[in-house]
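Data availability (excerpt). The following record was deposited with the supplementary files.
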Amino acid sequence: MKQITSVQNPYIKSLLQLQDKAKVRRQTGTFIIEGKREIELALKGGYELETVLFVPELTSEKELLSFQIANVERIEISKEVYQKLAYRDTTEGVIAIAITKTLALKDLKLSDNPLILIGESLEKPGNVGAILRTADAANVDAVIIANPKSDLYNPNVVRSSVGCLFTNQIATGSTEEVIAFLKENNINFYSATLQNSTSYHTQDYTKPTALVVGTEATGLTKPWRDEATQNIIIPMQGEIDSMNVSVAAAILLFEAKRQRGF
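Predicted structure:
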């Protein structure tokens, strides 16, 4: 089995580039997953692994084979190399290189009565990860990121989603493409916005529904406000007029789940 003990190894340097640069991830069609749980969730979510790197003192090859990766290249690495690559100290000494998915709208497989969460122009990887955790908790049909500003395979998204990048069906597209997709599939969509809005709890989410949230700084763009089935608002009783986007998404999603009888 191949072994790498030096952080100066060209392959390790290429992995550092893969971590740091979205352009490299796009060019190679690969990204990095760190940790046993995340790798297990990725495999369960249909992701294909290219290579697994592991520290034998922390994770044995026998443990790795329990992931059903007998045909995946495995490389032993030193603790020094692992510490150079790892974002966290608690990921059991295992890192995988996985192949990205296309994340196309046409590939989504929806139920007869879907519940979808849409986020427009979310910039902060931590917010994207939190949105994915919220969506997993509500067991939505899909998460759609319109006009994405952050690479979904950014290590910070993978990490902050605690594996929910792999447990959700995800697609991306422009705002215009996503709105067209919703209309083609007869899905009502409710845009969370301050303008021309009614309280979120007054609407009926028991039919095919998409709930749309935007950034705290600028909110949703005009097409979402103009073409929504209804604009909705979460009444604020304090001094500020917005909350974290993942918190807002959770409030809206779980109202929909309540109406659907959980």
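Summary of structural features: The two ends are 49 Å apart (CA to CA).
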